[in-house]
């Protein structure tokens, strides 16, 4: 059975997607790295041209199995074909997870494998690039699992095409620029600063660099000849006058390192005693990562990078990347990162990997550009399945209120992934800890515990339906589950308003194990083609506090919020600076609807503490930190790196999972 693929020249070519079904499934399922190592990946050139309809000018090869695709395809690909119709848009979210994860990425991959290889529907998965912090910390990898994963998985989980590295360097360049500028302004006169920032040429003339005109415009100076500036104008131009006690821009590293949460910089004698306290975030929490996820074009990215605020001046004005003159340099570092990476699943379904913001401390979704490209690739009747991080209270809420608000895209359906294990945890089961064997409550049948935990999944269903999105539940099956436990889940889900609740075995069987899910998703999408009921969770014209309260009360079911003095000060500052109309990106634990990870199930009636507020002016949102929430993780007692190594004979990476 073949499907028509529209090529770069507009011609239609028949292609048999079913030719790539898995035929070598082994039981019991081997380790993820063993499954991936045994797979025979197609050359990515074949995936790009035969399955995605791309031409040679649309992509750049990064080895044999990865390619960067042009960001321009987000606007040009649909117009190149005979129709501007795009495919169905499906978002995958999850139940409030345990520290072990509930298989959301695996389900995303299993679903697109089922759609394309087993039901002959055009499909593309859009997922985030994994951070190496969790890879070496707890998870040991994040490319799906079992027979539903992205390959080559070792390349996916490690450096991939260098995007996270580029973000880290760009972020830290800006951090270095901030401290260097503060140092030079503190140790030089206005005249010395002017002569160094505007060095005279051999003929004695001076010239503004292109980026400097943005600061001149901000200051209301229209002169183009540096020699025409008055002494007062020169002083305003050279002095950003950053308030060093309120610098908000932090350095980043793509690793779990708790000892970098708070540091002192400037300790060397050469810095002349100009020390200050600051800290590191994990790279995927950088605002530059969020900019990458939210941007729609190269020009839009330049504008967003330039608007990033590093802190206020002593007079309270926002100091930006444009003010520091860094925007062009950051663009040079990010030029290739804006292009999504094309990979494939075990069953040769195309996967676009782009951006990697955590959902608990950042926007938690893959890029708008990747989703737009995917929708154009699959065409009318095809499917793009994009993943939202962690539970639906975090990732899906941000997908709606941040990503869709910016992109204008509307989802036809949401898939929420649930497991018996997570439901038992929310029903009162013993704590689940990474690296510790599961209690017998999780490996033996306990229908009552599952039933008690359904309150968590039901709330996620209700919250998603409140956004006007139909819900299909994917029950990610484990070998220790029982039919009675699955029956309780399905019954409660249907009663709560889910379109369907489907048992999935894609981890063990690949796309074949998610065919029923694919059929349920197709049915839900076809019944919601116009997305007429879709709506956001709040109006951005509300004041900052009211928007935070809307999420806390309507999604988390808190009674209200409590602002620390620091958070209130930031709200007042950002409102005064003109950022009060931005949407909200909550930073909180992923393990509970509340601020307390030990409050399982569906807690309500609590007060949500807001400890601090950060501004991401370039990304376009405000970030309330719930409680004292860390923005760089720490390593556990027994990190995943104990299992990771390289086979010296085959040179293959071992131990990723």
Automatic annotation (TrEMBL):
GO terms, molecular function: ATP binding; formate-tetrahydrofolate ligase activity; hydrolase activity; methylenetetrahydrofolate dehydrogenase (NADP+) activity
Lineage start: Eukaryota, Viridiplantae, Chlorophyta, Mamiellophyceae, Mamiellales
GO CC annotations, alphabetized: cytosol
Keywords, in A-Z order: Amino-acid biosynthesis, ATP-binding, Histidine biosynthesis, Ligase, Methionine biosynthesis, Nucleotide-binding, One-carbon metabolism, Purine biosynthesis
A Pfam cross-reference name: FTHFS
Record field: catalytic activity: (6R)-5,10-methylene-5,6,7,8-tetrahydrofolate + NADP(+) = (6R)-5,10-methenyltetrahydrofolate + NADPH; (6S)-5,6,7,8-tetrahydrofolate + formate + ATP = (6R)-10-formyltetrahydrofolate + ADP + phosphate
Top-level enzyme category: ligase
SUPFAM superfamilies recorded: P-loop containing nucleoside triphosphate hydrolases
Subunit field text: Homodimer.
Pathway in which this enzyme or protein is active: One-carbon metabolism; tetrahydrofolate interconversion
UniProt family annotation: Belongs to the formate--tetrahydrofolate ligase family.
Protein name: Formate--tetrahydrofolate ligase
Signal sequence interval, chain numbering: none
Species per Swiss-Prot/TrEMBL record: Ostreococcus mediterraneus
Entry EC no(s): 6.3.4.3
GO annotation, biological process: 10-formyltetrahydrofolate biosynthetic process; folic acid metabolic process; L-histidine biosynthetic process; methionine biosynthetic process; purine nucleotide biosynthetic process; tetrahydrofolate interconversion
